[in-house]
Amino acid sequence: MFRLLFLLPVVLCLGWWWFLKTNDIPLKQGRKGFIYILIFSVFVLGFFTLMVYVTNSKL
Question: Which pLDDT tens digit goes with each residue over 8-34?
Fold first, then answer.
């Protein structure tokens, strides 16, 4: 599962893009949502990386 975490921001950004397109919202107006998605994804990836480091798990 850990090696598939790179898909998290891709799937969330695609979902956000689809939401914007279906509601006729321009991408420029929805830019803040993409930034929030990327920040959230970095936080999640950092947390799991820290947990692997703390527990000395070998993937």
Answer: 999 999 999 999 999 999 999 999 999
- The vertex-22 CA angle with 11 and 39, nearest 5°, equals 35
How many residues are recorded in the chain?
A: 59
Alpha helices, DSSP H, located in 1-59: 7-22, 31-55
Do residues 16 and 33 lie in contact, with contact meaning Cβ atoms separated by under 8 Å? yes
Instruction: Please classify residue 58 by burial: count the beta carbons closer than 10 Å to its beta carbon, then call 0-12 exposed, 13-18 middle and 19+ buried.
Output: exposed
Backbone dihedral angles phi then psi of residue 27, each to the nearest 5 degrees = -60, -35
User: Is this model's pTM higher than 0.85 or not?
Assistant: no
Count of other CB atoms within 10 angstroms of residue 47: 10
